[in-house]
Amino acid sequence: YEGVNTIKEMGRSIHEIPRQE
Amino acid sequence: DSCIQFTRHASDVLLNLNRLRSRDILTDVTILVNRQQFRAHKTVLMACSGLFYTIFTDSLKCNLNAISLDPKVDPEGFAILLEFMYTSRLTLKESLIMAIMNTAIYLQMDHVVDTCHRFIKSSDP
C-alpha cells in the first residue's frame, strides 16, 4: 500500500452479529 | 491479577485468515460473480456482510458450497470488498467507486456504504 493515500476510518466497519436471534 | 491485551491480535488473526484463503485452506464456499469465482470462508463472509449472514444462518442454505450472486454485481467491486473483509483495507479506485458502493449495498455492508458516500462527497470538486 506504498504510495497510496491512506485515510484512517475510526468508525465501525462491519455489522454486529447479535448474541442470539 | 493481571490481564495482558495483545493490541495487534485482531489484525494478526485477520492476516492469518487471509493466508488460509490464499492457500485455499478450509475455505468452504465458492462465490460466483458472473463468470468469476472466489473461494472464501463462510464465517468471514457472515461476519462482514449482512447478506451472507442471512444466507448462511438459513438452515436450507447454510450447507451450500457455491453461491451465485445477482448478475448486476460487478466482479471487480466484489473482489475489492472481499479483500476488504480479509484485510480491513478498502481500495477506492476512482473508476470503481460506484461499483464498490453498489456491491456493498447489495452485500448489506452498510458501514462501507456510508464511508463510500462520505468519500464521494468529500472528493466532489
| Major sheet details of chain B | 3 strands, mixed
Structural class of chain A: little secondary structure
Ranges of chain A with pLDDT <50 over ≥5 residues? none
Estimated share of beta-strand residues of chain A:
under 5%
- How do the SSEs of chain B run, as a string of H and E? HEEHHEHHH
Approximate shape of chain B: globular
Percent helix of chain A, as a range, is: under 10%
What class would the helix/strand composition of chain B place it in? mainly alpha
The largest chain-to-chain contact, stated as pair and per-chain residue counts, equals: A-B, 12 and 18 residues
Distance between the termini of chain B: 55 Å
> How many E-type strands of chain A?
0
Number of strands of chain B: 3
Q: In percent, how helical is the residue content of chain B?
A: 40-55%
Q: How many DSSP H or I helices of chain B?
A: 6
The biggest sheet of chain A, with number of strands, parallel, antiparallel or mixed sense and barrel status, is: none
Strand order of the largest sheet of chain B: 2-1-3
Beta-strand content of chain B: 5-15%
What integer is the average pLDDT of chain A? Answer: 88
Structural shape of chain A: rod-shaped
Q: Calculate the mean pLDDT score of chain B and round it.
A: 96
Would you give an account of this structure?
The complex is a heterodimer of chains A (21) and B (125). With 21 residues, chain A is largely without helices or strands. Helix content of chain A is 0%, strand content 0%. Chain A is rod-shaped. Chain B is mainly α and 125 residues long. Helix content of chain B is 52%, strand content 10%. Chain B contains six helices and three strands. A three-stranded mixed sheet of chain B has the order 2-1-3. In chain B, strand 1 and strand 2 form a beta hairpin. In chain B, helix 2 crosses helix 3 and helix 4 packs across helix 5. The longest helix of chain B has 14 residues. The model of chain B has no long low-confidence stretch (mean pLDDT 96). Chains A and B meet through loops of A and helix 2 and helix 6 of B.
